[in-house]
């Protein structure tokens, strides 16, 4: 059995058990695959897209995901998707700095960026 710190309160415990202090399930940090959100294909504006990114980051961290993949669309000639893309990528870069994470373009999808927590 491996020991790990609770992601809520930092109390150490065994992986697979519940934290004795707050009851959270203890699991290896960033053990889950990327969480994927789409912020471009339901007519989102910048404000909605930014809110979805913020919620997504929180959910990904709480769920011990290794990162958050944000589908922002390819951008391009129509203007609007490009605006969302630039806004979202800028936002991810700022969050990456704050969280000591990193941002990378998705190699498999030109319309997505990934925020890796480690
Ligand atoms: Zn705890």
Describe it for me?
The chain has 118 residues and is an alpha+beta fold. The protein has two domains: 1-29, no CATH class; 32-116, 2-Layer Sandwich (Ribosomal Protein S8, Chain: A, domain 1). The protein is built from two helices and six strands. It has helices spanning 46-62, 80-99; strands at residues 3-5, 12-14, 35-38, 67-71, 102-105, 112-116. Strands 3-4-6-5 form a four-stranded mixed β-sheet, with helices on one face. Helix 1 packs parallel to helix 2. The model has no long low-confidence stretch (mean pLDDT 90). Zinc ion (ZN) binds next to loops.
Please outline the helices and strands.
Elements: E1 3-5, E2 12-14, E3 35-38, H1 46-62, E4 67-71, H2 80-99, E5 102-105, E6 112-116
Parallel strand pairs: 3-4
Antiparallel strand pairs: 1-2, 4-6, 5-6
Helix pairs in contact: 1-2
For this entry, give a set of tags.
31% helix; 2 helices; 118 residues; alpha+beta; four-stranded mixed β-sheet; 2 domains; elongated; binds zinc ion; Ribosomal Protein S8, Chain: A, domain 1; two-stranded antiparallel ribbon
């Amino acid at each position: 059995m491996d020991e790990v710190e609770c992601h809520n309160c930092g109390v150490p415990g065994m992986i697979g058990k519940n934290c004795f202090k707050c009851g959270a399930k203890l699991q290896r940090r960033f053990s889950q695959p990327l969480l994927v959100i789409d912020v471009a294909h339901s007519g989102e504006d910048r404000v909605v897209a930014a809110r979805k990114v913020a919620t997504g980051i929180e959910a990904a961290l709480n769920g011990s995901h290794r990162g958050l993949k944000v589908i922002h669309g390819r951008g391009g000639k129509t203007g609007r998707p490009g605006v969302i893309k630039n806004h979202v990528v800028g936002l991810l870069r700022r969050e990456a700095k704050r969280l000591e994470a990193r941002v990378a373009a998705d190699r498999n999808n030109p319309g997505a960026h990934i925020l890796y927590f480690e």
